[in-house]
Design brief:
The complex is a heterodimer of chains A (about 290) and B (about 240). By secondary structure, chain A is of the alpha+beta class. Helices cover about 25% and strands about 30% of the residues of chain A. In chain A, a hairpin with a 3-residue loop joins β13 and β14. The chains are: A alpha+beta (about 290), B mainly beta (about 240). Chain A: It comes from Ancylobacter aquaticus.
Amino acid sequence: MCGIVGLFLKQPKLEPELGAMLSQMLDIMCDRGPDSAGFAVYGAGTPGFVKLTLRGPAGTDFTALGTQLGHPVIARGTHGVLSVPEAEEASVRAALARLAPDVRVVGTGARMELYKEVGLPADVASRFKLETMSGTHAIGHTRMATESAVTTDGAHPFSTGPDQCLVHNGSLSNHAGVRRLLAREGLEVKTENDSEVAAAYLTYRMRGGDTLGEALEHSLGDLDGFYTFVVGTESGFGVLRDPIACKPAVMAETDDYVAFASEYRALAGLPGIETARVFEPEPAKVYFWDRAA
Amino acid sequence: MNLSLKPSASAEGETFVDLAHTPLRELNSALHKLAADTNQTLWKIANPAGRHAIAAGLDVPVTIEIDGPVGYYCAGMNKQASVIVHGNAGVGVAENMMSGLIHVKGDASQAAGATAHGGLLVIDGNASARCGISMKGIDIVVKGSIGHMSAFMAQAGTLTVLGDAGEALGDSLYEAKLFVRGSVASLGADCIEKEMREEHRALLASKLEAAGILGEVDISEFRRYGSARTLYHFHVDNVSSY
C-alpha cells in the first residue's frame, strides 16, 4: 500500500501552517503505511548558504557537533539541520565525516529539510515537531514496505539531488536496469530501494537540463511498473501516475494551495476543502506547479 | 448503542447522524440492525469526510443521504436501499450491489459498480478507470465520462455514458450492453460497435428514464458496443488476446 501526501502553497498566508497541515494529513495516512514515515519541507533559506539535513544514531549531540564544526546545528530528534556557506560545503562535509562518521547527510539544498524514520507516522511526525514547521511546500510518505526492508534508509522521501525529493506509492519492475544506467552516468543510488532509483532518474534528467515537468514526461517512457510519484524541487511540485493508474491519487486545488493525497480522507481537514476543485490526476499525465513561473 | 443516533425533530422517521461525533461502526451497525418494516426510513449523514465503507452491506428499503464526499466501497453490497452521496465517491462505490439505487452527485473514483449484480448506479459527474469492471447485471448511468478499462469482463447489465470513454472499453466483454454518447478512445479485445436497433433504443430509454434524464438527451447520439463473442471459448488463434 503506502500513503502519500503533498502540499504546495500558492499564497504566503498559509506558510506558517504548512507543517501543521501536512502533519494532520500524514496522521490520517497512517492506515496506509504504518511501517515508517518521512517528509521533506521547503522552508526558509539563507542566500549563499546550503542546508544539510543530518541523521545520527539516537543520542547524537547535534549541538556539540555544531560547535565542533563551527556552524550551528538545529537539532530535531535524531536529525539536525546544519547551515553552511556554499563555499564551505565540501570542507564541512569532510570535517563531518571525520568528526562523526556515523552521522549521515540525508538531504541538501537551499531550502529543503528532510526527515524520516521507522515507526508509526503520527509518532514520527511529532518526534520531529513537523506541526511547528513552516514553508512553501512539503511532501510526506507513510510506508508499507514491499520491495525492500523496513529501515530508515528505506523510508521515503528519497533525495538524490539538491532540493530534490520524491515519494512513491507502487513498485518499479525495471529498477535494476535503470540503476545500471544511472551508475554509468555517475549517479549513486545508495539503497536497494526501487523508489530511490526513480528519484535518481529524475535527478539525472534534470541535471541534463530537463525541467521537472520534462523529467516526469521522460520517466513515462523509461520507468516501468506501478507508481504514483509526488516530487519536490526548490520551487516546484509535481505529480505523475503510471498509465494504468494502479495506485490511488486525489488532488484538491484552491486559490491558496494544491494538495495531494492517496485518499480523500487526508484532504478532508484542509481549509476551504468544501469549495476546492477536487479531482483525480489522470494516468500518464504530468502535473506540476512552479512558484518561480 | 450510543444515543447520538437520535431522531431529529424535523420529521418523523428521519434519523440524523454526524460522523464527526458518531463512530462509523456504530452507524453501519445500526443500519444493519434495521428491520424490514422499520420506521427509520430516512437517514441523513453529516461529515462523512471520505470515510470508507459508509452504508455498506444494507438490506432494507431505506434512504441514506450522505452530505459530503465518501471514501472506498460506499454502499457496497447494497440490497434494497437508496443511497445518495452529495459529493464525490472513492474507489468501488456500489461494488457488488444486488439491488437498490446509488446516486453519486459528484465524481466517482475507480471501479464504480464493480462486480455488481443488480440495482441502479447513477453518477452525475465522471467515473474514473475500470467503471463497471466485471459487472453482472447492474445498470450504470454516468452523466460525465469514464476512464480506461471500463466494463472489463462485464458480464451482464448496462453501462450508459453521456460523455466519453477512455481506452480499452469493454475488454474481454461478455453480455453487458454499453451505450456511449461521446467518443471512445479505444475498444478492448473482443469489444465491437454494434448496430443500434429499436430494442436497444428502448432499452437505453428505459435506463435514461430510471436515471431521470429521459428527454434530456438525444438517444440517436448514442452508439452501442458489445461482445464479438470470439473469446468465449479457448481457441489457439486467440492466444495473444487472452
